[in-house]
Amino acid sequence: MSRPLPLALAQLPPIPAKAQLRDFAAEMESIRSRFPDTRLAVFPELHLCGVDTLGAQAHEQLQEIAEPLDGSRVKALGELAGDLGMWLIPGTVCERGPEGQLYNTAVVFSPEGRLEASYRKIFPWRPSEPYDPGDRFVVFDIPGTGRIGLSICYDAWFPEVARHLAWMGAEVIVNPVMTTTADRAQETVLARANAIVNQVYVVSVNTAGPLGRGHSLVVDPEGRVRAEATGDGSTILTDVIDLDDVTRVRTYGTAGVTRMWDQFTPDDTPIELPLYGGRIDPRTWRPHGHPAA
Length: 293
What we know:
Layout: E1 4-11, H1 20-34, E2 40-42, H2 56-65, H3 72-84, E3 87-89, E4 92-96, E5 102-109, E6 115-120, E7 139-142, E8 146-150, H4 159-167, E9 172-176, H5 184-198, E10 201-205, E11 217-219, E12 225-228, E13 235-242, H6 244-252, E14 271-273, E15 278-280
Parallel strand pairs: 1-2, 2-3, 8-9, 9-10
Antiparallel strand pairs: 1-13, 4-5, 5-6, 7-8, 10-11, 11-12, 14-15
């Protein structure tokens, strides 16, 4: 069985604040025109937040444009996704929380224009980012295709995020990024590592230059780079991934050998995890949807 998911990854610079939704609509219409089979379009972190600088000035911009998820920005993005009839992750938005919090939030819209999921970045890049951290992991389903997990930029440096998303049944982890620093080279390694140790696809979409370092990429469940932007220039990276590859790799093993999700038997002794005040329980180790779960 095949479960294809045609992707368009928009490695582009942030849109200036004065023309956000108009210019974003033009970007989306261009993708639809050039790549009409696209089912999911993904943009970089803060793509719609008008951030074209760093430091205190950027923090002021973020505070000024923050809106609740029932605000006009999210409504307009939903209408755009519905008009184009595709799944849309427009990067992240600045969300104003119910008690005045500032969240860096990834939003997902269905082809019907519904706000299907939202995820607040759990690991802000401290001390440089002003956001309040989120407190939960988020996955969503594309009917007939599979389950997608959300992480944002620096989350990729914490293996707990990818592990929990995979355990929740994610077969693809989408990671919108706005990396402006020299450690993008390490992030591409982490994308492969997170894919390998969780047997999932990883989709990492970075901002283009001159602000961002680019190098967006798609990694398969065995850690192979399927598609990659080799520099920081503006580009639309396309691929068609098959989520049934996740089932294949988890069934037969990475390189036909390694099946870490089948490591434990129910009779194995739980492993204490003092760092977390918790444990690995062999009875609950396998992810949602695993044949033996």
